[in-house]
Write the structure tokens for this entry.
Amino acid sequence: MSWKNKIVFISCFVVLLTLFAQKGLAAEPSMATYTSYPIFQLSTVAPNILIILDNSTSMNEQAYVGPYDHGIEYYGYFEPYKKYSYGSNIFVRDPAGPWDGNFLNWLTMRRIDVARKVLMGGLATSRMGSGNQTNIGEAPAIAGYDFMKTYTDTENVTPFDSATNFSYLMDGGNFYVNAGVYVIKVDKDMNTYPDEAPSFVDGNIAGVLQKIGDRARWGNMFFNYGTGNNGSGGSVVSTIGTNMNSLVTDLQNTSCNTWTPLAEAMYVATQYFKQEEVASGLDYPNGAAPHSNVGDDPYYNGTEFVHCAKSFVLLLTDGMSTMDMLIPDELKDFDGDSKDPGSFADSGSDYLDDVAYYARTTDLRSATVGKTELDGEQNLILYTVYAFANDDQARTLLKDAAKNGGYVEKNGTKGPDLQAEWDANSDNVPDTYYEANTGYQLEAKILQAINDILARAASGTAVSVLSSSSEGEGNLVQAYYRPAITQGITEYKWLGFLQSLWVDPMGNLREDTNQNLQLDLDADKALKYFLDPGTGDTMLKRYDVSGAAPYPDYQNDPYELVLLDEILPLWEAGTNLAQKTPVERKIFTFVDINGDGLVDESVHNDPFDKFGEVIGFDTINDNCGTSKNCIRPYLGVKDDLTWGYLGVDQDTRTNNLINYIRGEDIAGLRPRFKDATNNVWKLADIVNSTPVSVNRPVEDYHIIYSDESYQTFLNALQNRETIVYAGANDGMLHAFTSWEYDAANKVFNKPAAAPGTESIGDEIWAYIPQCLLPHLKWFPSPNYTHVYYADLKPKVFDAKILPDDTYYVDADSDDNWGTFLLLGLNMGGKYIPVTDDFDYDAATPDTTRDFYPTYTLLNVTDPRNPKVIWERTYTDLELGTSLPAVLKVKDRWFAVFGSGPSDYDGTSTKRGHVFVVDLKTGNPYGSGGNDWLFETAEGKAFMNSPVSLDEGLNFNVDAIYFGETYLSGSWQGKVYKINVPWVDVGGNYDGVDLANYVDDPLDATNPWQFAPLFNATRPITAPLSVSRDTYNNIWVFGGTGRYLSTADKTDTDTQYLFGLKDPFYNIEHTPAGLHADDYYLNYSASLELTLSDLLNTDQYVVTTGDEVFDGGGTSIGNFEAMKDLVYVEDGWYRTLSISMERVIEKPSLLGGMVYVPSFVPNGDICGYGGDSYLYGLYYETGTAYFEPGFANNGTTTVDINGQPVDQVVDKTSLGYGKASSLGIHVGQEEGAKGYIQQSTGTVHNEDLNPALNIKSGLRCWREK
């Protein structure tokens, strides 16, 4: 490979500026420069958690009964097995001290002390952030709750004689022994004793509440005394949203001096969330449930009502229900178990499970219940924690309450009528019931409960965000990610998931229920995604099937409600990858050791070895003339000060970074999530890199163009296994195997080349582009934000550019076909400089290389043995957001793409540029010494992804269309066109002789041409689509709008859908035509259309009676008349009628219909980012067709001139979230089925009725 007329170039790997190797000579790059978050990322709505901490008198009892056992570690304010001295009324750490912390915990801790330590670090002096405070035991002291312990010091844990049995009296915050008085206070100092740091947050003594922090909105309530005037029930003392300091003050200072009115307290909690006063006549105190001010409302966050916030009660108690009879009569035996009030001592009751059932099953803020009606459904979910005691009656009561108040609805009947709803693991213990007998157990169970609460609160859109899906043969591959998962007190961010589901012959999604990798219509359950409007959860309805009923009746059949991670896919790649050890992974990269910009790998063909320039990404790449890792200088981690978090020296940092990227969890770096079996999660978020499934060659050139050479290629590789390619924001393009698909038997079989231990869905390799190597250091940073890496959909295609007889032998001497993957990075790989020892010679000065976004071509014909053909960048490319078009002219193959924005907010500092490169080499066809071939006239511009046209289906591309976005006061846009000349000797359009196509874009006589085709007046960021009508007009379809920055979310500029006829192919653009000009098949002139050249078809009403009315109610005739109106114009356009509505996805064409989603952002925290719609327009008119394009709700009745008529619907709601482009399945179902993934996590199935017949003997996925 070589450059064509090019010697010096700027690339991801070659700009060299010699510098002295002095640290600090130039500022090191900062992660802030490269931080960018998904624009459609939804705001995480923190759950409301009301804590009911038992403050009954029994909480004053000792936490640890029985004799002291030095082999048991006791939980408490003191550090177990650390030594303490006592003086000045306080215990302090002292290695030579006589007191043992473990003994002091056993001796002094009461139940309330342990509970306080778990929740907020314990009762402590003022938390001022100094890292030094004092824990205080038994305060406030309660008279009558002293206790005595005895101990003979045989373990050297006290200052007393081991031969004497001493008695210790605990009373009033002190303990008394041997005539001495010891105040139960202990100095806590993380500054002096770093081992105490885990007990601090921000320099303050802390517990679970502070460690979870603002991931939840907290409140707390206590029991009232239980008898006497206004003594019933409980009181909310800290409303939801109270600041942490106030909450902690309440929790640590409230006395334990009440009875245990569990049901009454739960009733008060319920009234609080309803924002209603408790019922009169029950002897509750006034204000027990604060509701007078808007700030009291748990659903008000200080600025707005957040109706989608989920609400929970966490009840921690040590005792039996007592003084617990006063609740409203209608709540008694609300669950109908006939066990109420039960037989309990001290006027206790069994009512807790009844109140819990009411709170769980009732919409507490509906039109008839609660103070103010809120959207959606608000109810309470109860978690119970039983601690320190052992009473079966109390245990049963708390279990029943957890079952009734904590179940997960699965069958839509309300109530825990299925065991799976309250006991997912089938252990006969309710999932929201926890029990603990020791302090450590209590801490673990409280943390487990809160983690489960956070998981339930985040089970909807904020945590399951789906990227676009892709369609393989017989299956749908779905990518989604979780912005955060809490495990323990640690929040793990940006986890990626990739799963495969069946698509049955009727276009329905199914799981692989029996996990046999075969589509069993009588066993594999059908799935239907939906967004629960009440809870905001992304859910699936899972339908049973059988031999007698293989296809469910979605309207009437019963179903089970499940979450996304509860279904049984064919495979899930994230789980598989977690089970693979880092050393087992096959990861490779490219390092341009000699700096020539070429992939020098002609001898060393193994991409996973350490030889050549394509090498394994591991720590043993020492083949660079030194003992140093060949990858080391490319990582940009030489500076000790800046990159010290990775290790003490550069070699350590290099090894740590490589091992972390491979999947190791390394101490000191960003902690990595571990699954239930302690496997490290390795797959990062997949945001914009739509997964692509590839098996046998699928271009069908042997059918479309009767290409016999392609038939030979297909025959040789027709049984190739299915590979799913996806880029992730961990720096890699991943290749996952989906094994070989047997279409006849609808089963996936293991390939012969697969190792014996391989599972379907395993990663078989991953590639890290060279320009991403300097960015990898952000990923393990303890302060990691979010950085884009391999973020563009891979472009996979077949091309005839391999040496003859590569992979298969044929009869000719021409190039051979192969399958290739062209990888761009979208928002990844932004410019970054690195200064290091790139010649691996410490005796020479360090040099600086500048790394820019690249495109990489890989040969994946043999998918288990990939080859890097080239990796290149280009001047003025900016971010690589343009998905290339791959095209052929005569025998030459090209990749064509546009320049991207300069920054993540979609702004540009340059004009738009178009690049045309030789597919074999990556060499650009440049203009005037530039890498780009064409430049737009507009500044501050960038281009979208191009679409190419083979007008005559003669295996030569005739035109390429781009959309442009540019800033000129406001965001504007144009459609640009490249003409590939097909000219005769006179320079006129040929149309006959294929030899007259111009395959050199820089041809001296007839170079490729570039000109604006349409001034859209609004930005065009989504790719265009093209088609042909019966008059041989070439139509270009698109829409306008942006969604790249925060400012775009509130952009109210009117946007459009359009379909325009290219004047070059429009016979009415002749002197004798309707337009009386000369653009038809004329390379010497071009016409830039405007909106005024198109017909606005907003007003037209198309009816099922094949009659069309204008906006004034006048009939214009039948649908042919509508087509005639547009025929005399250069196309049509539609105004997007909703404020802020825009088009940001590619239109899909099927059977004469243009299906295109639109999106309307909103600022509602509960609005899932916005709403999406789907247009279904007839391609020649921009209106509905006279037969419904949507099978469901395809018509609506409207009044025209006083008469009801059935209007054909041309727009349908897709619901909440940002919609992806449309994937289309054509199978046994009537019409077709469209699949759209929403950013909420739902997959929307739309039954489509195209205008023209699309059925044939083939059944396949189609997206044009």
In short: The two ends are 34 Å apart (CA to CA). The first strand starts at residue 15 and ends at 18. Residues 1-25, 460-469, 1256-1264 have pLDDT under 50 and may be disordered. Residues 35 and 786 are 5 Å apart (CA to CA).
